[in-house]
User: What shape does this take?
Amino acid sequence: MNGEPSSARVAVVSGGSRGIGRAIALELARRGSDLVLQYRTDAVSAHRTAAEVAALGRRVMTVAGEAGSAADAERLVRETLAGLGRIDLVVANAGSDGSGPVDAHTEASFARTLRTDLYGPFALLAAATPELRRRHGSAILIASTAGLLAATESLDHAAAKAGVLSLARSLAVTLAPEVRVNAVAPGWVVTDLTAADHRDPARREAVRRRIPLARWGRPEDVALAVAFLASDGARFVTGATLIVDGGESITWRQGRSGRGPAAPA
Assistant: This one.
């Protein structure tokens, strides 16, 4: 933890050590929030991101834990309240990349993805709800365009992210009027999970051609969307999904038949 107690807003970011989570943490810190970063195993990256947050003059904590564990979610909330005294914003960002196409799944792998990607956000929100209600706070669930359209290469991931979008809408109604709940659905963003695709020149260019804005997304693009939904500028926005994919999900890929929606990331 860094610094003395303050009245600054406190944001909890799961999966906050690197990639999109790191970008979200830094953007929120720039806008005046103190941060709690939950990470699973990469303590080095978590502490590096925490140091970057501290360099921006914000208080910061790191807490290890599994995204799909109710016990770890409850401990995360307890440690945040003990260390920073409040929770104003929860960003459920932790997730996995799934198991692959249909013939690659097992019962165990499918359940593991659902536990991390779908139950994880629910467990975190359930643990934080009493404090968010007291603070009239906000929650943002990081989904994916894979939850909007068919994603044949990662069925469990797509199913889980579709569930996250439904969960955000349901919680928006359940927790209103005290708490706003929204979702962000990124498309192709350059992160560790997409590094292999981005390194392959043919694959990288094939993806880029499908995106009307003609580039891959960056973690900072998602962070800016999260910052907006967390801000007073979105004070009358709840139950919404903000798609951050450069327009890919509104286009049509022309295959042999000339029909059918583009497969999302």
Observations:
- Residues 254-265 have pLDDT under 50 and may be disordered.
- The longest helix spans residues 107-135.
- Helices lie at 19-30, 43-55, 70-84, 107-135, 155-174, 195-199, 201-210, 219-230.
